[in-house]
Each structure stands twice: as C-alpha cells, then as structure tokens.
C-alpha cells in the first residue's frame, strides 16, 4: 500500500484545492473521487435517466467505464474513452452525482478503482467516505469543513469564473440539500472518521490549511 492521505468533507469545503496542493507538495498523486461520481452521473444524464429512476441507475451505471489519467501531473477524467474533465464540473452534474452516489450499485462500481489507485500509489484522495470506507487504513485522515456561508461564497466565485451565474442564496440552498443527502444516506454517509482530524477552514487561508495538513502528515510519516 502507498502512503494514503484521506480528505473528506462536505461540498465546497475546499477539498480539491487543498488536496491538490498537498499532493503537489509531497509529490503524491491527487485522486478526486467526486469527479468519478460526476462522470457516472453525466453518463446517466446523457442516457436521459432521471434521479427518480433508481433501477435504471443501478443497471446502466455498470456501462460507465471511468478512468483517471494524469497529464503533466493534472488529473483527467475519462468516460468510455472520452475526456469529460470539464463537462463534469457543471452544477447540474454535481447535483445528479449527489443523487446517484446514494445508489449502492454506483458506489460498488467505483470502489475498486479507488482502492487500487491507493494501493499502487502514494495518494491524497478526497471525497466523502474515504477515511471511513474506502481507505480505513489511511495513515492520515482529515475531515475538512467550513460554514455553509463560507462554502457558498467560494462556490459562487468558482462558478462565476466558469461563466455560470447563480445567486448566493441558490448556491447555499444547493449546498444544504447536498449536505443533507450526503449525511443522511444509508450507504457510506458523510461523517468524520473516528481517527480523523477535524479542520475547519472557515477562517483559514488555503496555505494555512495546506500547512496544517502537512504538519499532521509529518507527525505520521
Ligand atoms: O466533491 P464533488 O462535489 O465533486 O462530489 C459530487 C458528489 O459526489 C457529492 O455531492 C457526493 O454526493 C458524491 N460523492 C460521494 N462520495 C465521494 C465523492 C463524492 O458520495 N467519495
């Protein structure tokens, strides 16, 4: 097994920015598991499958072949032989990802891919259930969070940079809905691992959070 750093937390807590920076600092690979759920969601949306069609989701997700490629250290997400890295970033795909990720067959489908990446590499992996379910033996487990308002503001800026305009209220409501779905689902709900370290980034800069995680890493390495 490689050295594994698991970073879990709710939507918009800054997991991907932080995880990417920590990985770069340590020359580990960064694995964004949310992107994998987004790719499956995109596949199902393109088939015209809706959030209510749980049986169809369970059946058709099996045909979504997701893979991760690294080009110049950047992660690309491929779906059935096409690069969907930017398409999966749309807000509607994120919302569908949050729905399909509660379907056991979808989680099962991605489990092996996530496990094998961590077995073969030193990784910083971010998601919702990495420290609790996917990599229970990870040497470092972080639960990264921030207030809904902070997360909403960050998300709005991110979307704006991509030319998508949404009101802060709409984004905060989306975040609350997504948190609720992620935390109350039956399978692998979002929660802090018992041996995880809580980091609240509401009043911290990106580099402060990165340093905090590097300090925790150095204690364990
Ligand atoms: O992190 P991101 O917003 O890209 O994730 C999209 C959705 O995928 C989340 O709202 C969550 O429901 C789901 N997800 C998950 N388990 C993970 C990563 C993401 O259920 N490990």
Topology readout:
Elements: E1 4-8, H1 15-26, E2 29-32, H2 33-46, H3 54-60, E3 66-71, E4 74-79, E5 82-83, H4 91-100, H5 104-120, E6 123-127, H6 130-134, E7 140-145, H7 148-161, H8 168-184, E8 197-200, H9 206-220
Helix pairs in contact: 1-9, 2-4, 2-5, 7-8
How does this structure look, described?
It is a single chain. Strand 3 and strand 4 form a beta hairpin. The protein contains nine helices and eight strands. It has a five-stranded parallel beta sheet, sandwiched between helices. A three-stranded antiparallel beta sheet has the order 3-4-5. It has 221 residues and is an alpha/beta fold. It starts with a strand and ends with a helix. Bound molecules: cytidine-5'-monophosphate.
């Amino acid at each position: 097994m490689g050295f594994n750093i698991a970073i879990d937390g709710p939507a918009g807590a800054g997991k991907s920015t932080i995880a990417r920076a920590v990985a770069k600092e340590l020359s580990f690979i960064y694995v964004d598991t949310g992107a994998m759920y987004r790719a499956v969601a995109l596949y199902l949306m393109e088939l015209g499958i809706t959030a209510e069609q749980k049986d169809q989701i369970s059946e058709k997700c099996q045909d979504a072949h997701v893979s991760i490629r690294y080009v110049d250290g950047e992660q690309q997400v491929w779906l059935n032989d096409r690069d969907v890295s930017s398409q999966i970033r749309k807000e509607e795909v994120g919302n569908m990802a949050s729905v399909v990720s509660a379907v056991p067959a979808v989680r099962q489908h991605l489990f092996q891919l996530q496990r094998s990446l961590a077995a073969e590499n030193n990784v910083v992996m971010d998601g919702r259930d990495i420290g609790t379910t996917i990599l229970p033996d990870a040497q470092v487990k972080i639960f990264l969070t921030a207030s809904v308002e902070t997360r909403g503001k960050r998300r709005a800026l991110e979307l704006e940079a991509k030319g998508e305009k949404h009101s802060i209220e709409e984004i905060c409501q989306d975040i609350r809905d997504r948190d609720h779905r992620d935390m109350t689902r039956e399978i692998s709900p979002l929660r802090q691992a018992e041996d995880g370290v809580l980091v609240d980034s509401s009043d911290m800069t990106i580099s402060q959070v990165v340093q905090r995680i590097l300090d925790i890493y150095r204690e364990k390495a």
